[in-house]
Amino acid sequence: LKGKQMLNARDMLVEFELIKPAEIHFKPGQFINLNVAENTFRSYSICSDSSLLDKVSIVASVSHEGVGTKYLKELKQSDEIRFIGPSGKFFLPDNFLDNLVFIATGTGIGPFIPMWYKLEELKYRGKISVYFGVRTEDEIFFIDKLEYFKETMNFDYKICVSRPSEEWKQPKGKVTELLDISDFSNKQYFLCGHPLMIEDMLGILQKNNVPDKNIFHERFTVSK
Prior knowledge:
224 residues
C-alpha cells in the first residue's frame, strides 16, 4: 500500500505500488481482483493512468460492511497485498466516432479516468461528454480530474444529483433524466456503474436505434 484517502464520506482512493511483478500493463477500463480474505476476492476497476506502469490505483465505496470494505479500511501504509489481473473486456474501441459520451454513477467513474488519459495521449480531437450521477452533492469526487480534462481536450461534464440539498442550484435529476436526447447519431456510449442505471440507459439507447457496436458498458456489483 502506497497510500489511501477518503474522497468523501463513502468513497476511498487506494494506491498500490507494484513489487512483483514490478510493472503492470493494462487496458484502460480493466479491473483487478483483490485478495481481501482467504480464498476471497473482490473486483475493483483501475482508476490510474495506464502509462504509470509501477503503480495501480482503485476507488471503492466503503460505506457498507462488506469483506472488501473491511479489508481496505484496515490496510496500513506499506502493507503488502495480492491481486489477480488485469481482467475485463470493458475498454476503448480501436476506432472512434466524433462524439464520445461517458455515463457513470458513483465509483463507476473510476475506469473512465484511465480512458480519458489514453484519449489525451492519442490526441483525440472529437467531442467528449460526461454525465456523472450521484445521489447527493456530498458524494461528488474527482472534480479535479474532470476540470483537468476539460482544459486539455474537447471535454465537458455534467454532474447529475438525484437527491440534492436546497443549496444545489444546478439541474436536479438522474443521468437518465439529464442526458442530451436531441441527437443520438455519430456517438459512442460508455456506461459504468449501478446495474439499474445500465439497464435504463441500454433501454434508452436501443429505443433510439443506437447500434450495439457503439455501446460499451460495465455493471458494478451492488453490496447489500
